[in-house]
Amino acid sequence: MRVLGVDPGLTRCGVGVVEGVAGRPLTMIGVGVVRTPADADLGHRLVAVEQGIEQWLDEHRPEFVAVERVFSQHNVRTVMGTAQASAVAILCASRRGIPVALHTPSEVKAAVTGSGRADKAQVGAMVTRLLRLAAPPRPADAADALALAICHIWRAPAQNRLQQAVARHTAKAPVTPAGAPTTPKGRTA
Q1: Is 63 a catalytic residue?
Q2: Annotated catalytic, 107?
Q3: Mean of pLDDT values over 30-42
């Protein structure tokens, strides 16, 4: 499985591609940051983020894209920029028919370090160890993007099995008219 992880941001949008399967050693294919100037017009910045992500999709041909789920922060300006960059990444992948998964920061930290409260240094150290790199990727946005890809590779098989089980259960569930009382065996009374 090849996954492009995206740590969304308007000034620095971390991108990283990891290949592998759960339970086996993973391989970093590429890592970087799409940068935009803070003083540029918002529209131009979003276009630059789109162009950068499109280049990564063209070059690395991922099967999945994992994007950090935007969460509430105290700084509304920061969360808005993060949400806008996130939407661009989701749009770029969806336009190509590439499945997108959203992971919260605490899910990613827990998957990579074992603690949902890990700091950036701990995430960088574990990404370095897991991908057998000589040094942590810089800046931290790049390491976070790799952590997103790792998280998705490790979590996707379990999530897929859960979704399949729910689908099988839903398909087997008896259908009753809306509001009709049912007996313990699921039959209409």
Answers
A1: no
A2: no
A3: 97
